[in-house]
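Hi all, posting the design record for the shared folder.

TITLE: backbone redesign
STEP: 1 of 1
STRUCTURE INPUT:
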């Protein structure tokens, strides 16, 4: 290394340590004098050397900038890490002012006002049979008015209506069923989602060559094409009396895994198959392994159609629960308990220090199925931003008639539960919630 270049490196360090002397202050004469004094240079040597040194400074600046840019891109590609997660203990739930949770109070109030102005018109007496056909199970005589909770960073940011009112949530139960199914895999009762159900369940429901091909994944993605009758309802959905406005036209049955159809008979078949695998009622599994660990209340109920959907399990008559309230029964639960469940899912199946549900399962559950709409393992997705154009593509939800929803927004660390609202109003609510976010 030449003596001149060695001096340039020393001058480079001098210029970097004395940032006002990096040639950006415009005082060339003062720079010249300081640099000659620092290195013991002649005037002509100082000016030529400064040029060389500043070139080295600029190269180093570019290297540092490039490194920082690469680091920023790499870090930006990683999921955001939450800090100091809050999990409400049983029987209580802390609230925080919107500003403390990075939310604009005025805009959040606009969202709540909007929600309260878009309550549901659903009437059990007038609408249930007309929409879904002959009922099989219980229905409540009445329901609560619209109500809900907005949770951010685990804390309640806002709530409205009677959030302790216990009501049916219709197909929100499907997302609970999916989560209960995850426990069968976690406990080794089912080895792989791609295994045929017929390898585990031997009650005649999968004996036909067609049904024998159905996998657990097919059921979970509503692509099973299961053929048959269960609890008096045929999977073909043909007949106005039995299926009301939801009746379907005859069509050719496709191979399992090649066609998507929203079909409660097939979901009820999945529920029965899981009952066979667990050998105990699914509500017991849900309570012991999920709802109790997350501090849910004792007020929720999950039912089927009473004796109509009861089967023998090891000499015990057990009710097989339904994946919705289309024909009565189903999951009856309040908004607070729904929000706890949503928070569990938002936090990748973790509650405090306990991994309640497999994080890998929940990751797989929000991968869109190959056919049909934006749909995972009985969760509605937004990867194409068609379900909620105003919401992040990463958001997803459990949705039931009424309408009833648990909306989960990982990007903003938000859970929103809405009981009894006008279905088309959801995106307007999502838009207002997202607009209220002011910070992390």
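Okay, here is what came back for every position:
SEQUENCE:
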């Amino acid at each position: 290394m030449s003596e001149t270049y060695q001096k340039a490196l020393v001058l480079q360090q001098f210029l970097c340590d004395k940032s006002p002397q990096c040639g950006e202050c415009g005082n060339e004469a003062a720079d010249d004098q300081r640099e000659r004094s620092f290195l013991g240079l002649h005037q002509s040597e100082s000016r030529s050397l400064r040029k060389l040194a500043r070139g080295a400074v600029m190269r180093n600046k570019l290297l540092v900038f490039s490194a920082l840019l690469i680091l920023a891109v790499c870090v930006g590609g990683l999921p955001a890490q939450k800090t100091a997660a809050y999990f409400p203990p049983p029987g209580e739930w802390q609230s925080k002012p919107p500003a403390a949770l990075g939310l604009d109070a005025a805009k959040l109030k606009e969202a709540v006002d909007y929600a309260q102005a878009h309550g549901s018109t659903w009437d059990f007496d007038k609408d249930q049979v007309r929409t879904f056909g002959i009922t099989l199970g219980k229905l409540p005589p009445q329901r609560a008015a619209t109500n809900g909770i907005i949770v951010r960073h685990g804390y309640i940011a806002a709530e409205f209506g009677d959030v302790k009112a216990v009501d049916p949530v219709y197909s929100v139960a499907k997302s609970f069923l999916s989560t209960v199914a995850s426990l069968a895999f976690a406990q080794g009762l089912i080895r792989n989602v791609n295994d045929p159900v017929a390898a585990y369940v031997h009650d005649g429901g999968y004996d036909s060559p067609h049904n024998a091909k159905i996998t657990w994944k097919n059921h979970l993605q509503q692509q099973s094409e299961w053929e048959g009758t269960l609890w008096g309802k045929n999977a073909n959905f043909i007949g106005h009396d039995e299926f009301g406005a939801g009746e379907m036209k005859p069509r050719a049955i496709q191979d399992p895994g090649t066609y998507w159809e929203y079909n409660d008979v097939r979901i009820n078949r999945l529920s029965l198959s899981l009952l066979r695998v667990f050998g105990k009622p699914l509500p017991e599994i849900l309570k012991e392994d999920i709802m109790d660990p997350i501090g849910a209340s004792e007020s929720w109920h999950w039912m089927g159609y009473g004796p109509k959907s009861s089967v023998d399990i090891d000499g015990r008559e057990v009710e097989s629960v339904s994946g919705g309230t289309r024909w009565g029964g189903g999951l009856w639960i309040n908004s607070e308990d729904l929000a706890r469940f949503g928070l569990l899912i938002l936090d990748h199946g973790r509650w405090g220090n306990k991994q309640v549900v497999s994080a890998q399962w929940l990751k797989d559950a929000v991968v869109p199925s190959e056919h049909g709409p934006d749909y995972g393992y009985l969760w509605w997705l937004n990867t194409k931003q068609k379900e909620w154009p105003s919401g992040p593509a990463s958001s997803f939800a459990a949705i039931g008639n009424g309408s009833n929803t648990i909306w989960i927004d990982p990007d903003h660390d938000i859970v929103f539960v809405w009981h009894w609202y006008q279905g088309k109003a959801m995106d307007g609510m999502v838009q207002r919630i997202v607009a209220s976010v002011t910070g992390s």
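COMMENT: Residues 43-76 form the longest helix (34 residues).
Let me know if anyone wants the other runs.
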